[in-house]
Amino acid sequence: MDGPVGPSEPGRRRRRPAISCVLCRRRKLRCDRQKPCSNCARSRNGTCIYEDGLSPVHGKGNATASGSVAAAEQLVTPPDSDACYNSPSTIRADRVANLTELISPGRSSHESATARSENESTLPYHATVAEIESLRRRIRQLEKDLPTSTRGPAQSHSAHPPNPAAPNLAPPNPAPPNPAPPNPASTGKYTELDSRFIGNPTYIVRDTPLSDIGHLVPSSIIHKQRMCGQSYWMTCMFSHIQEILDPTRPRPEMSKVFHGLQRCKSLARVIKAHRRPPWPTPLTLDLPSKDLADELVNCYLRTSESVYRVLHVPSFRRDYEELWMPGSSPDKSVVVQVKLVLALGAAVYDEQFSLRASAIRWVYESNTWLADPAYKSRLNIRHLQNMILLLLAQETVCVKADMVWISAGSLLRMAMFMGLHRDPARLLKVSTRAAEMRRRLWNTILEISVQLSMRAGQTPLLSLDDFDTAPPDNFNDEQLSSDEPVPKPDSEFTQVSIARAMRKTLPLRLAIVKYLNGLGSSATYEETLRYDTELRAATRTLHHSMEIWKSNVGNSLSHYAEKLVIFIMNRYFLALHIPFFNAATHENNRTAYAYSRKVVVEATLKTWCLIFPQSSILSEHDKTTPNDLAQLALNGARFFYTTAFQAVFYIAIELKTQLKEEVSLGPVPLRKDLLSVLQEAKEWSIVSVRNGETNIRGCLLTAMATAYVDGLMRGLNTEELALVLIKAAEETEEQCLPILESMVAEFQAYDMPDSLDPSPESGCSQVLEDWKFSMVDTLFDFGSAQPIDWTTQFEPGYQPDFDSY
Q1: Backbone angles phi, psi at 19, to 5 degrees
Q2: Which of 611, 638, 636, 627 lies closest to 303 in space, CA to CA?
């Protein structure tokens, strides 16, 4: 039959071309045929498409690949408003239908018409579910293909945020409810660093930059599954370490250095495994001889107890003497307290730290006993004292020293649970001795929390509004045994004078730690200078007080306490100004931040003189024999050791900056005191390894930094500088390797393989496996470094290396 073709027949063609835009025709609206038309303009729709400009929607022609991709970019971009249509979902469905036909031009008009006819009653979008799913799959493929076709070679990680004007190629389907965590290396906030010498992937984070130099200063770093803020000693050093190591990256000779480093690391694991007793370590009554124990107690009282008041010394001595009485059955809490005191005293007993293994065992025994979950029966002052001593011992003896900040949170909450954050005058009436002990312990807990937060690069999670406990009164311990003691004036030195003086600076130091490590803080140089002014005023007050105490007849101010106060205050100056010191090393900022550069150099020199009192930069009158503070740093106490290494490294950075910024025909004059510090630090770090430090990275980086400065002074090119750095690293490893091997040989004399428990719990199976040196190049291959995955599940038996820094 020859008749007109019905509108439902697939062979029907339009007699005249469509002149309205695609969306107006689909919505049955009058189109003014502008680009964009008035309807699309009112709806803020940028996808006004006419059939004559692209492949026809109902035709059989094929658009080019570039035309399809361009249309896909436009159609998928959601509008800001959909004022001229009923709902956003309908508009989105129209775009889906159009985009399906644009990116699938091979579909015949018959198939399209049939699909629309079958679904008109159920889908107002004029598209089938299959078409939408096909569209989604196609868009995902476009997302993968577009970056490679529109961008050039891969760029390095940038600190700039993504461009908001870039086309949004996200698929229309919603995101999954629990998306995977972002890859740190895939965003502009992270910069991966060379992990060959660090041993772990490390990222600089700039999500909360300083307001004026944020592109130069990291706000935190991600290292060893930890995130540390600006006050962490290595946060601002990593980029300088990478700059020093850069000349060695393409050199094949570095494989020998990596092999030696891995061999030293494997030896260190064996040494630490032999020192580490099995866990749990039951508490025993075994104590050293009485004479040795007396000496260790005296070492503790003249060092740690002179600053961090924990014990009532007369009561402690009474309990201590009862331990040695025949037939005595002491309380286990007393035994724990004595062993922790002995461990702290052992760190300064001799230069070689010969009692290191015993001190580690005492700490493990105490930790095992304190880990008993029967807390209700232990809510007392002695238990709180033991928890404080355990934290101090872990920091000093290097037992999980990097994790002490976590335990400090438990200590703080335990004290608050016992009410120490409220002043005893506001509680039930107690004796003067009980009230003063509560104030002393709370004061020590505050000091430990702030200091560990500074070292760990974390916030103290504490504010001045959380407590109202007053500082301890100026009493000697013997006075607290009387009924109505009278506190001494501030000008008279007592056993609590140092603690009281440091308490006056606590609000300022707490504010500085929060300023440096707080979440979302936006620091400015003006604010840093304000804190610097207040810190200098507080330091002058401390200095004035100590001068008064030393002038009094019969004063008992210990040399250790005096030096420790200076050391702590210098650490805050370094933390405040190091971010701006880094900015001052760039040419555009040398003048603006010259003051910070000067402060950092002065503070590093003072720190080094405290750590190394025989330094040649001191006058003959000021030179002294090794003191307790210098001994703690040499024996690896983490607060002192890491600060010393930080000071030395920034002296090397200062020398490097001076050499690079001076342009002259003759030799560049450098400060001899800074050069001498680098040479002394090389020898000092080797002595530290002889005293039992098992991590040689400090020695290695100190030697390479010294060689780097020396190479710049000699005017070496990059090739020659790389050879000098490699030679310095090899020589350092040749010095350290025999020292570590001799330590292992001593353990082998005691039948080391039998003494090591190869069970997964002890971690020694990994140690014995590392002894084979089977993974020399893999651990330090920069090319294979992977970003940190926060969801990684460790295998059974995994034991992190807490003793390394």
Answers
A1: -110, -15
A2: 627
* Residues 238 and 322: beta-carbon distance below 8 Å: no
Q: Which pLDDT score, from 0 to 100, does residue 743 have? A: 92
pLDDT beneath 50, residues of the chain? 1-11, 53-127, 147-188, 193-198, 208-209, 211, 751-805
For helices 129-150 and 88-103, the axis angle rounded to 10 degrees is 70
Strand 202-205 and strand 226-228: pairing? Answer: unpaired
Residue 140's CB is within 10 A of a number of other CB atoms, namely 13
What is the amino acid identity at position 42?
A: R
Number of CB atoms found within 10 A of residue 791's CB:
6
State how far the Cα of 694 lies from the Cα of 214, in Å rounded to an integer: 36
Q: How far apart are CA 183 and CA 789, in angstroms?
A: 7
218 found inside a domain: no
What does the pLDDT read at residue 206? 62
pTM: 0.71
How big is the CA angle at 583 (ends 579 and 585), to the nearest 5 degrees? 120
Using CA atoms, how far apart are residues 516 and 120, in angstroms rounded to an integer?
Answer: 63
Instruction: Name the CA dihedral angle for 398, 403, 409, 410, rounded to a multiple of 10 degrees.
Output: -80
Question: pLDDT tens-digit profile of 490-515?
Answer: 999 999 999 999 999 999 999 999 99
- At residue 710's C-alpha, the angle toward residues 708 and 715, to 5°, is 95
Domain that holds residue 114: 22-148
Number of domains in the chain: 1
Give the separation between CA 601 and CA 650, rounded to whole angstroms. 8
Answer whether residue 768 is part of any domain.
no
**What residue type is 256 in one-letter code?**
K
Write down the pLDDT at residue 78: 39
Phi-psi group of 305: left, alpha or beta (phi > 0 → left; psi -120 to 50 → alpha; rest → beta): alpha
Cis amide linkage into residue 280, ω under 30° from 0: yes
Distance, first Cα to last Cα, the chain: 92
Q: What's the pLDDT at 375? A: 64
In a domain, 468, yes or no: no
Q: Which residue has the tokens 């590093």?
A: 604
Return the SS3 of 652. Answer: helix
Residue 369: other Cβ atoms inside 10 A? 19
Domain-embedded: residue 614: no
pLDDT digits (tens, 9 = 90+) for 44-90: 776 687 775 433 333 333 333 334 334 334 433 333 433 333 333 33
Please check whether residue 309 is in contact with residue 443, taking contact to mean a CB–CB distance below 8 angstroms.
yes
